Amino acid sequence: MMDLRQSTASQEITLGYFLDSTDGDTEETGLTIANTDIKIRKGGGTTLISKNLGGATHISNGVYSAVLDATDTNTVGQLEVYCHVTGALATKTTFNVLTATAYDAIYTGTFNNLGGTAQTADHTAGIADIPTVAEFNARTLVAASYFDPATDTVANVTLVATTTTNTDMRGTDSAATAANLATVDANVDAILVDTGTTIPATITTMQNDLDVITDSDGVVLGAAGVDLIWDEVLTGATHNVNNSSGKRLRGISGSILTDGTAQSGGNNSIQLASGDITLDEQYARAKVIITSGTGTGQEAIITSSVASTDTLTITPTWLVNPDVTSDYQIVPAQTHQTVRNGGYDNGKIYIDTNGTGSAGTEKGVNGTTSNKSNNMADATTIAVQENSKIFEFTKGSSETLAQTYGGYQFNGNGSSLALGGQDVGSSFFTLFFLSGINSSATQAIFNDCLLSSVTTTTAAIINCSLTGTLTLSSAASYAITHCQDSSGSTPAIIDFGAAVGNTHVEILDYNGRLELQNLGQTGTDTVIMSGDCQELVINANCTGGTITLSGAIKVTDNSGGAVTINSDALAVTGEAGAGLSDLGGMSTAMKAEVNAEADTALTDYDGPTNTEMNVRTPTAAQLAYITAHAATALPVTFSGGTTTTAIFTNVDGSVASSTDDVYNGRVLIFNAGTLDQQVTDITDYVGSTTTATITALTTAVTGSHTAILV
Question: What residue ranges define each of the domains in the chain, with the CATH number in brackets?
């Protein structure tokens, strides 16, 4: 976590990665991010506020830079920065705002404001007239002249036998003189005890120490003095006064568990300084950062630590292996729980109801890539804890939604999901077998799904297969794009609802058969449809509305003319070649002219042949097989082939199998290139050449084609 200086302008931060909101992978490099798109939460704050001034500018690969000013950083503590712009997934970045004093102490080594006034003059100025060494020596007797209390004599002084009659020497008041001498004697004894009789040497030592601290006779703190300050041990009992530099430095030091210079490093390891690890697994799940030397700037999560060798094992592997020049720091890893059991890759919560998932809502333990949740409720709880809105299902899983999911992304990978009557507005679903009811007021998106008897409010349905009845339950707009019928012998049904009304549906590039029901029952319903529809059936319960058609569409109108049909391009009404028998209130002559024009158009129209339509439509057996085995569907790429052979390159992202006959009996559904939507069987497979023998296609297989292997 990056440190910032309190109330300081022009502090640059980075935001991102910004990934595409649709696929969650593409780096967004052209976003326009204003200051109002960047929301911050200051330490202790209860609301998000916009960044004060200036937006964010793209740096590279979806990473953007922004500059914080003094207003943005005016509160000490954790600073959370959120950004969510149209077209990209939301991001969150956390910073630590330090006081200017603490920040400068860490990053600049400046102590001019550690609670006192900067030293600007000679520190001895307040002590009056300190004697020099020479002056002390001049005032101090040499050793030979000392008074000896043991013998009560002074060296080099000759005592007379008695002075009782010599009043000039002893004075007239011998008693007072004796008392004064006793006082002097006691004072000298005390001085000798205090000084140890080495006053000159002690003074010299004091001067030397003072010179070390002040760099000779000056007032500037010398290197040795600075070293003493930095090396002072901070404990709970010392330097712990509230608001003192010592106490604040102690608090800051808690974010660094240890640091030093490495002894060596490997692809997924680093050997710390000797003695830096005192217990096995001491730093497991923490983070190691290379701060200088070889590999500077790299970070990794610690998966294990061994005290006997001072060695850490890390993930992911180093890009540049550290060595003896590499300085490191070990800090608590905010993301350590997300990698404890495999992690929430790209912010996804993982779900597997096939029997291998597990129950639980512990953050970092459940719902990870290696310990998937076995139920939707637990996965949802973890998603809230992780601030995630992406669910990744394991193929073959099955779930029913039991609560509202607004703005989520559901990746099915061939799983079954019942919508459960829930509000899934603004959510995105892909690769599911979908059923049930969506009750949202905002548009949901269904992509590459099989919709089986689904009831939904406004929705965008893209690249989906329809089977059973799709019921439209709100007076809204619907988009059905690049979809197809998978109902077999009966057409898929779109039911407009008998009491909904004012519904608008665009059905673009539709393939297969389709029946419309209850069109025009209430309000004004409109349909715009295009594609190679084998047949559009208008049910007899349709009482109004307007349908605009374009493309090769055969229409069977059972509404008795109640529905208005506008035909563009090659759209035809009625059986091909039978003419247009029901043309409303047209005159006989006009009907004849229209029929003639229609016959001419049908004659000139070069639509798909029966053979071409057949290769695009699964047989009943193929459809039954696809439905039964859809959960095992795998993507396939090719290097080439013919109309009856296909040379496999990759299957499900890995090199195709080298085992003979391993894919025999399976079905290929082409989804790109000139073979798009064609279906064929695999009758033989040679592993040595990765070549499959297939039922004949209309054109040869090439490297530009892709397919789904079911």
Answer: 2-98 (2.60.40), 258-334 (2.40.30), 483-607 (no CATH), 611-709 (no CATH)
